[in-house]
Amino acid sequence: MKRRELLLSAASLAAATGSGALLWSPQTRAGTHDAYFSRLNDLLKREGPGHPVMLIDTERMDRNIDVLAGSVGRDKTYRVVVKSLPSVPLLERVMQRAKTNSLMVFHQPFLNAIAQAFPNADSLLGKPMPVSAARTFYHKLGNTPYDAANQVQWLIDTQERLLQYQSLARELGVKMRINLELDVGLHRGGLAAPAALDAALQVMLADPEHLSFAGFMGYEPHLTGMQAALDHPAVENVLGIYRGFLDGAKSAGIDVAKLTLNGAGSHTLRIYERDATMNDLSAGSGVVMPTDFDTFHLTENRPALFIATPVLKRYDDLSFLPQTPPGVERVYYIYGGYWKARMVSPPDIGEPIYQSTNQSPITTSNAVDLQVDDYMFLRPTQSEFVMLQFGDLLAVKDGEFTARWPVFHQTG
User: Fold this and answer.
1) What pLDDT digit, counting tens, does each position of 21-49 carry?
2) What are phi and psi of 20, to 5 degrees?
3) Residue where one domain finishes, among candidates 230, 263, 288
4) How many domains would you assign to the chain?
5) What is the pTM of this model?
6) In 194-210, which positions are buried (b, 16+ CB within 10 angstroms) versus exposed (e)?
7) CATH number at residue 190
8) Residues near 378 by Cβ (< 8 Å), separated by ≥ 6?
9) DSSP codes, 307-333
10) Do residues 30 and 159 both lie within one domain?
11) Which candidate, 62, 69, 58, places its Cα nearest to that of 98?
12) Domain residues for 274?
């Protein structure tokens, strides 16, 4: 956006409100980088590439891993969510520290990358995939030493999809492990009642050459934000539905102790510390803590993921603006923008004047005193897609770069 367009846009916004105040009028702004971000700023000015980067504080991340793995406990499996941590070296660090070999995968190219990088990993699909995606996985698997028949659990939500997968298994001459998605209250698909279980089990038990029953997955993010424990009615409802399916499996002669009984996510994992219903709990974003995960059950986890972007321009003379709202005394243009992210340092900076993926204009008071080539820092609101936008992740510890971690490709 050119300056003339900015002036016209700002003037029209003020006129539209009838108040004379611009819609992007900031809240109170004060301060500059604290000691933590000052060290990162100095590091990036000294050794950074000069463009926006994604940083991971490995000391904070390791502590978050310990908190999550400790909540899962020794009696259950901690399953690492790949889409939230989309990098082989990053996943390797999490898996080693948490002492787990179990992954949840949401994207076919990522599943093939996992098969290549972690030949011993157990991978549970986190969503039902089109049968064509499953076919692509097998075609691209090639000679990879990955035992898909025993190490992939395909998520199935309907009888129709189960029959599609059976047909593919027969076509390819492979055996597929089937995990059944349960609707435990989210109402985003999956088997809605235990009565639907009988037909699925009949198909699998009648075709042991091509299908095997691996377990259940009951995702319940509708519990997010509730200050809930096991005795909360909403939690009791989730577990009651889940147990209904377990009873159905037992009635069919299934040994449920051998099944993967998956549930939870970063938001809700801690609810189940003393639950004996599920034996497999998932979490990914809680490892790095984007802002959407600043929720009740993650208060012990610390932000470990930051976007750092250079300041390109600084304006102290704001006469080019048609109006200057109270508190606006400077405009900084940062390199890039329009990410799913919120400014974290300097503190108390509001939204940009307008959104731009090229140069975003950030307004501040004169208490924020950065120079051109200094950095501003943002926290992503999510990790999964945002982490793929910056190239290699830069691992930092004690104010120094320690590693570069390549991220997955969206296609493959």
Assistant:
1) 333 333 433 468 999 999 999 999 999 99
2) 80, 0
3) 288
4) 2
5) 0.90
6) bebbeebbebbeeeeeb
7) 3.20.20.10
8) 306, 307, 308, 309, 339, 341, 342, 343, 344
9) EEEEEEEEES--TTSS---TT--EEEE
10) no
11) 69
12) 58-288
